[in-house]
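One-letter codes give the sequence; the integers encode the fold. A sample entry reads:
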Amino acid sequence: MANPLFYAKILLFGEYGIIEDSQGLTLPYSFYKGTLKFSDLDSEFEKESNSNLQKYAEYLTGLVLPNNFELNVAQFKKDISKGLFFDSNIPQGYGVGSSGALVAAIFEKYSLKKYSPETISKLELKELKKVFGQLESYFHGKSSGIDPLICYMNLPILIENKESVDKVSIPKMEAGKGAIFLIDSGMVGETGPMVQIFFEKMKTEGFRKTLKEEFIRYNNACIDTFLKKEMNPFFRNLKKLSVWAYDHFKPMIPESLYNAWKKGLDTNAYYLKLCGSGGGGYILGFTKDYEKAAGMLEGFNKEVIYRF
């Protein structure tokens, strides 16, 4: 493959919960993608990307990766000097894995060990996740490695717990009335500060208790019922999850969406949840009747990602 494309990812379920060992479910999202390319660096975008790759290459120089993984950093640096850049339309700060796709692309091109995502074992996934965590921590301070793993695999992934992930089949799309969709909050979200707020909240016993006893339970039930295609129990748990987030994740909900979030809960026409760390970027919407929900969310930019 000459220039493999690396797609964005969407974390359907598990934001913040996966830090505390809940399950997570992620999908590749092919609307946004990126690939490594060479150019004469004529545009500002290309120049900036090339310069960022230079800084990242310095970070990689002294990095010792687990499980005997090695990257050909010398070749990476050589390619950067020849005009390598990451050509991507994945928006940054939108919770769809811009740094994950970049890390996956670099790993694919420069890792001495090669994989075929179709035949990869569960143990290898676990090892890769660790490696990707180290490679991506340059961008976020601390990374679980999940984002680059999804971008690299380009397959739906079930996060079973902190340590373990597996490939999973999601129900086939159908041309039904229901939909999962993205809403653009119109503002960029910063992962770092949002995660900081979460850890501050985790210092209070009451929050830790409700996270474990309610949030994680609803989150895992949503994943379970969605994969089994049991839509009625799925929406029941989804509403509980959305109410919980409205009560406890207020700082992470973009202000432009407060009222729309509440309106969905009051009318049961749709339910909203965070997509990634929140604070801006995209918010996820779920509805049994997309036409009706879209009418109620007029004025917001929306993109349907799954129909049922």
Remarks:
- The chain has a mean pLDDT of 92.
- Strands lie at 6-13, 24-38, 84-88, 157-159, 165-167, 179-184, 271-274, 282-287, 302-307.
- The first helix runs from residue 44 to 61.
- The chain has two domains: 6-167, 179-307.
